[in-house]
Amino acid sequence: MLPFAGLMNLSGKEMAMLRDALCEAFPTYEELEMMLAIELETKITDVITVRVPGKLLAWNVVQWAKVTGKVHALVHGALRQSTANCPLLKAASAHLAAAGHLPPARQGPHPSPLLPPIPVAPPPD
């Protein structure tokens, strides 16, 4: 069995939650395009064939990730690349982890289970 095989079983509500989280974290086409290129090494034009408005764009990305089994990479890549504090993205990640669709995020300064925690030095005396 493939790891994270359950990712293809996302409910419609979970897909909508992830869509809204992506819209909040990456409000422009260019920001979502950059995140996909950096984190998933995917051209946005490989995901969609025509440029569409934000919510529809994010929906298409979520559907693509679900079909290709890349939801895990999408969620954790979005967490790494998001420059803003996006409560909805964090909530979506936590919900998907609790539902068994993602491994739980590590506690600490970096939320991704794919990268080691960032050491925090004690303040100087």
Structural summary, described in words:
By secondary structure, the protein is mainly alpha-helical. The protein is built from 6 helices and no strands. The longest helix is centred in the middle third of the chain and has 15 residues, at 54-68. Mean pLDDT is 77; it is low at 1-7 and 105-119.
Could you give a short description of this structure?
With 125 residues, the protein is mostly helical. It is 54% helix and 0% strand.
The number of strands is 0
Task: Give the overall shape, derived from the CA principal axes.
Answer: globular
Which secondary-structure class do the elements indicate? mainly alpha
Mean pLDDT across the residues is 77
Distance between the termini: 52 Å
Order of helices and strands: HHHHHH
Radius of gyration: 15 Å
What is the element layout, followed by pairings?
Blueprint: H1 12-25, H2 29-39, H3 44-47, H4 54-68, H5 71-81, H6 87-98
Helix pairs in contact: 1-4, 1-6, 2-5, 4-5, 5-6
What structural keywords apply?
globular; single chain; 125 residues; mainly alpha
